[in-house]
Known about the structure:
The chain is α+β, with helices and mostly antiparallel strands. It has helices at 2-18, 115-126; strands at 32-39, 45-51, 56-64, 72-82, 88-96, 99-103. The chain has a 6-stranded antiparallel beta sheet with strand order 1-2-3-4-5-6, with no helix packed on it.
Amino acid sequence: MNSLIIFTAxxxxxxxxxxxxxxxxxxxxxxxxxxxxxxNFDGSYQWSYETENGIAAQEQGVLKNANGxxxxxxxxxxxQYTAPDGTPISLQYIANENGFQPQGxxxxxxxxIPPQIQRALEWIAAHPEPEEGTRGFRRQ
Length: 140
């Protein structure tokens, strides 16, 4: 009877842990469930993967202005995973000549610009400084 109770308790603990997120131990191998990659002669590419611990990522890119004076790579993609505290993290991004531009609910958002500062910025934009060398006088 006691061995049946102990066996049932061990089985219940094992089943309870099966669906819960567990932080992998250092050096513990994590299986790759899905992986693909494709690189083309025109400079475009795509890759994606998913692991058994819930990490997934994908990206595609293209070479813009390949025959122009300044070719540039543009990439867009996303990744998601579960943080150690259990928070789901999901991020989408684009990277191009304007830099890396991430979007995600977990990213901090700057506070709004105060109305007085916004008016001052608009006034400065509407009234540029005179060209250097004119000493404040405009030529007519």
